[in-house]
Amino acid sequence: MSDGSTGSVNKEKTLLSVVMINFRTANLVIDCLASLLPELTGMKAKVVLVDNHSDDGSMEQIEEWLIQNTHDDVVIPVRSKFNQGFAGGNNLGIIQIQAEYYLLLNSDTLIRPGAIKILMESIGNHPRAGLVSPRLEWADGSGQESCFKFHTPFSEMILSAQTGVVSRLLSRYIVAQPVQENMFQPEWTSFACVLVREAVFDQVGLLDSGYFMYFEDVEFCHRARQSGWEIVHDPRARVVHLRGGSSSVKRKTLQRKRLPRYFYESRTRFFYQRYGRLGLTAANLMWWLGRMVSRIRQTSGRKDKVAVEYQWRDIWINWWHPMKAYSIPGA
């Protein structure tokens, strides 16, 4: 199967391969690389930078910066022939180099000093750890929620109701976990920055390229856990996550504007893969039930802060064909 790329695959094995995606985010990529590359000094490591068919000159801008700063021997540019999204773009980067460990890294991140070393030490000290994630934080050092429980139909009701009573009754199903100061094992972790052992890919396969963006990290963590791997969160390693640099979903959610179709396609795919058609249907109906609770609250004068535009309808996207190929934005 073609990977839709230009460039050759390097079969020489290295210790660490850092995989990054560029999609029209030249300035973010350059800032991220400027924070990352000093952390790789003295380490047998390469950076694979996948351009997801930006077609806007951003990759040329990045390559010029690499040459000017003599980093072109560390960073390997790979150009995709089409926009493969987050999962497909990372898979394309992963297969370029054989490494013992792979660090999947968003372009909208900045590496705090020592973070890479801590992640490498942590995964080395935990033989059953297939994935290790750092603390994600804002530029001011305040923590971000980056560790989670798996989505369930009940968590969909919590999401749409946004009511204290419902959240307390179903507290065991709340997805986002509080920021913690100590190492622990979440059910899944954000792939904005995550270190993955090569053996995990060998055993469970790559990311599911049927996801364009969102939920692919949840699905991969589920497969890894089913195969006996542990997921470890080590907050001693700290990475700034600027959020929203590669996707408009978070911004549109805050503005309560309609989300891209690919978000709902991914949501449908995950619930179907995890729970079957009945589970997918239950998730949608539970979302509607929570939405009814939210609407009742509005009758008492409380502001609606839950649903985005057309969400009541869009959650049914691909319900009849949940494994249907995603729609490429702008295609």
What key attributes describe this structure?
331 residues; alpha/beta; Spore Coat Polysaccharide Biosynthesis Protein SpsA, Chain A; nine-stranded mixed β-sheet; 38% helix
What does this structure look like?
The chain has 331 residues and is α/β, with parallel strands linked by helices. The chain folds into two domains: 5-144 and 179-246, Spore Coat Polysaccharide Biosynthesis Protein SpsA, Chain A (Alpha-Beta Complex); 151-176 and 248-331, no CATH class. Helix content is 38%, strand content 21%. The chain has helices at 26-36, 58-68, 85-94, 115-125, 153-161, 164-169, 198-204, 216-226, 249-255, 261-298, 311-314; strands at residues 5-6, 10-22, 45-51, 75-80, 97-105, 109-111, 129-137, 147-148, 188-189, 193-197, 230-241. Strands 1-4-3-2-5-10-7-11-6 form a nine-stranded mixed β-sheet. Strand 3, helix 2 and strand 4 (75-80) form a beta-alpha-beta unit. Helix 1 packs parallel to helix 2 and helix 5 (153-161) packs across helix 10. The longest helix has 38 residues, at 261-298. The radius of gyration is 20 Å and the shape is globular.
